[in-house]
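Chapter summary example.
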Amino acid sequence: MLSEFRTFISRGNVMDMAVGIIIGAAFTAIVSSLVADLIDPVIGLFLGGVDFSDLFVVLGAGEYPSIVEAEEAGAAIFAYGRFIMAVINFLIIAFVVFLLVKGVNSLKRKEEKKPDPAPAGPTELDLLKEIRDALKK
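The structure predicted for these 137 residues follows.
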C-alpha cells in the first residue's frame, strides 16, 4: 500500500495539481487585494459610498442599530447585506480574472504568430545545387 501511495504522489498530475493549488492561493490574495483595495473604493465613490454589508433583519425580539451590536448581543440575524456584498465581490473578482486570462491568452496568440527566424547559412536546396555542380565537374 505504501508503494502504491508513493506511485500516486510521484505522478506528474498530482504534483502539477499541488503547484496549481499553491499558486492559486497566492493569486487569490493578489486578486482579493486588487478588488478590496483598488476596485471597491472606486465603485464606492460612484455609488456614493453605499455599503450593503450593514443591511440585516433581526430574527426574533429586539432592535439593534447595527449588525455588530446585534451580533454582540447574540441575536439571530438574517444578514442579507453581507450576501449582497459577497455576490458583488464575486462578480468583480470573476471579471478581473476574466480580464487577466484574456490578456494572457492574447499574449500567447501574439507569441505563436511570430515567424521563425530565417535559417542562417545556405538552405538545403542551395547545398544540393552545390553538390550537383561539384559532381558535374
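To summarize the output: The two ends are 73 Å apart (CA to CA).
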